[in-house]
Amino acid sequence: MKILLLCDRDSANVSVNEGDLRSEMQTALQSIACEVDIVELNSDEIQPCAGCFGCWIKTPGLCVMNTDNANEVSGLEMRADAVILLSRITYGGYSADVKAFLDRSIPNISPMFEMYRGEMRHKMRYKRFPHWIAFGYGESTPQERKTFSELAERNALNMRPPKFDVFTCETADEMLSAIRTLKDSLAREGKS
Fold it and tell me: How far is CA 131 from CA 49, 54, 85, 126, 159, in A?
């Protein structure tokens, strides 16, 4: 199974067990024979979305801005079997690093709309989207964790992954437990 681990910069500084959150996640995934690509997202280096819709009209599937790595990362996303967003929970949303990339990943959906589960949603640009996993971590209130979970689920609806999971963790023990749960789930998925 090919996994794309999209990390914010803080995830390398969160102590878990004997290492950091990012390396613990990578080790767990590799222990079940996953091929893991890690991309550290940096909102200082990702240009903000211009809202020009060029990715839908002029260069379908690609952002017209090509001076950063957003197109490359979007391509990795679509070739993966699963995408894990490793994000600090920030006021119930994603970290600035993850949000910057998500804003620039709209070329992966179609500009056309259709009804999906009783709601107006973008049509799928591609026949499949990878398993989508949002992993929110850090000090946060119960309401912020709830908001993060709802936001991640609403984002997933636009992409229609075959499977969607969300984890919210505050303590190192919660993070380790969530990593084990995710690892077990992906191991079962890889066998089927």
Answer: 24, 27, 11, 14, 10
pLDDT digits (tens, 9 = 90+) for 54-99: 999 999 999 999 999 999 999 999 999 999 999 999 999 999 999 9
List beta partners, residue 20: 15
How far, CA to CA in Å, does 99 sit from each of 17, 47, 125, 184? Answer: 27, 12, 21, 28
- What's the gap between Cα 15 and its chain centre? 21
What radius of gyration, in Å, describes the C-alpha atoms of the chain? Answer: 16
Claim: this prediction has a pTM higher than 0.90: yes
Q: How buried is 3 (Cβ within 10 angstroms: 0-12 exposed, 13-18 middle, 19+ buried)? A: buried
CATH topology of domain 2-191: Rossmann fold (3.40.50)
Q: Among residues 108, 105, 159, 163, which one has the least CA distance to residue 131?
A: 163
Cβ proximity of 93 and 99 under 8 Å: yes
Alpha helix (H) residue ranges in the chain: 21-30, 54-57, 70-79, 96-104, 142-159, 172-191
